[in-house]
Amino acid sequence: MRSPCGVVALLTDFGLEDVYVAVMKAVILRINPKATIIDITHNIPCFDIEKGALALWGSFKYFPAGTVFVCVVDPSVGSERRGIALATKNYYFVGPDNGLMYLAAHEDSVEKVVVLENEEYFLRPVSYTFHGRDIFSPVAAWITKGVPLEDFGSSIAPESLIKPSVKFGVEKVDNTVFLKVLYIDKFGNVALSTRFRELTKLLEINYGDLIAVSTDKKLEKAVVTRTFADVSPGELTLYENSFGLAELGVFKGNASERLSVKRGDKVFLRREVAK
Amino acid sequence: MRSPCGVVALLTDFGLEDVYVAVMKAVILRINPKATIIDITHNIPCFDIEKGALALWGSFKYFPAGTVFVCVVDPSVGSERRGIALATKNYYFVGPDNGLMYLAAHEDSVEKVVVLENEEYFLRPVSYTFHGRDIFSPVAAWITKGVPLEDFGSSIAPESLIKPSVKFGVEKVDNTVFLKVLYIDKFGNVALSTRFRELTKLLEINYGDLIAVSTDKKLEKAVVTRTFADVSPGELTLYENSFGLAELGVFKGNASERLSVKRGDKVFLRREVAK
Amino acid sequence: MRSPCGVVALLTDFGLEDVYVAVMKAVILRINPKATIIDITHNIPCFDIEKGALALWGSFKYFPAGTVFVCVVDPSVGSERRGIALATKNYYFVGPDNGLMYLAAHEDSVEKVVVLENEEYFLRPVSYTFHGRDIFSPVAAWITKGVPLEDFGSSIAPESLIKPSVKFGVEKVDNTVFLKVLYIDKFGNVALSTRFRELTKLLEINYGDLIAVSTDKKLEKAVVTRTFADVSPGELTLYENSFGLAELGVFKGNASERLSVKRGDKVFLRREVAK
Lengths: 275, 275, 275
Hints:
The first copy, chain A, is α+β, with helices and mostly antiparallel strands. Chain A has six helices and 14 strands. In chain A, strand 7 and strand 8 (176-184) form a beta hairpin.
């Protein structure tokens, strides 16, 4: 377990039109005026725990050791779902126990989990609809001030944490591999549900090989490359994205439009060139 | 009057596509490199003073005492409208005198108002179109450095401040209550033009009661609850939102779509269940 | 050449939906926890180097001396294009050598340019697709820590820098002036491809004069004013915008809609009133 470093990173589905995010920051600064607050993103689609979990998983490991992550994609706020704080090997996570923080926390090895019960550290009266303001932000700020996790409530077993429905994974039938679209970024790059290295082993492919890519609506060919810039503008490629995942991209173009896919859609890959 | 704490909070209608907001921050840091700058929101619709006034009112009270708010929704920049700085019991506000800062400042008790006249504290030459950069941001930064309000210009009476056209309020005719939609958030929750506590008294309703909700296009029923999570997904509820207002929401759904309402629309509420 | 001041300003086309921007900030804070990070904008359209160059040019000069700008609009990441760091009279710039940083750096006088070669200062392994994270952000953070430019790689001649395709400029034929739409802001104000002062000389116009404005689809009249607030709501005006450019605006309205123009479109101006 690391000492808190004073950085608080926020991830929510609150958007930047309303004042919810600003209010969370205000509450944090009121408790710890020296906190450094960084936005991961607030544009997670409403209630989309899976997308939030992936965004947190893709980004947390670049933050300084001792960062406290406040994560709020919380469709069941005000219900019986638990509010929790976790310490992992290098970080702290505060938010609802609904799978949102699981992938990241699990990857960094969960060391301690407590249920947030001690109202002494909450903003009172606690509302029924905005625990990001009344519980998660103040608890995160108190962690940066050195309050130990056990002061917030009773410990629970890491095994009892809710898991998200995100499905990494890949299936192989004969010489065809079945994947899902994990997410699509602003550039239209299509991240797939497995690590690039696992996929290249499974398909027995190397840089320069050609693969067939089929989706519900399209049949295309892609070259296996180190990066989309290794081909001509407009060509489709398969490469390792910056988070280690297999990704389909079009150099100076948009792969999700080319393939007519959206998040969650199925993609089939098959090696074209015998070796 | 509180001492400035070094936090500067920004609220504008400038959006995040253009560089206007960044330029304001740059100007502030140039005068006070130690300032902590927090965005409230920059996505107020262009020229929408009423929405800006509500956003500021909903958020200001969570900030540390001594925060300086720079507020720029300023359709008449460059005209005769006054630029002002206000000190309230706990905060400072800098911006145009057009109603934008009135609700928040008034709630915190206005203690002093000055007209911004002293060009010594402006970025010169002052442009005709961007007082956020040339007047309001530098004045806010100088306040954080300890410059007293009287140095910026002559005092004016708080009573002379322009009021915004925001209309909180509710009317009751027979057993029906007439309200307006004050704002709609990213989740489609519909905030109404009165406090929840006032509404429950007026309608003589309690948690669990059923009310009829009518809009121009829809007639629905809603349950009075502590939070939208108290009902089943898809049900409409009336509850106290996190700012104390009466709000209509759909658990894991979108109330503004369900009711076909937009900001400013009329909503009628009537108690359904006799007690 | 100035000493770095600890401010790092970011400009990218990454958007705020994905976690790319947050990851860059995390990498910077890991190297320099005391850095002050400011967003210029992340909403540059994908791959739009010209728009990025203009946004940087419009904003850089307001930042504190010693600010380090990290700029990533980088369609050719992973290809042979060079990654560079520049020192100008007052600032530092880090990013791809593709024209993005040229206008700003050139205006502030380039003093030194190095190619980023020394992997000791990179995040390793360096990915092929995200140099913003692996090269540009860490180099910027190391600059704020006092590492001299020569430590990052070999010097190159400022004359070898790639120039952007942005075309300021204006042509006059008989008594008509030909311009282009340089950019359109959130308010629909239409910035033109020349400085206001140059245009008024060329057209021999003064405040109060009337000019004819023609675009492909519209023929309108505009008054030359100090600001759009000098006319009645709904009127079209030509004025000096806050960056010194000639701009067409409608008081409390939207000039780009009125004129049916988009970025890059041609605009013809002619003086109407003889003097």
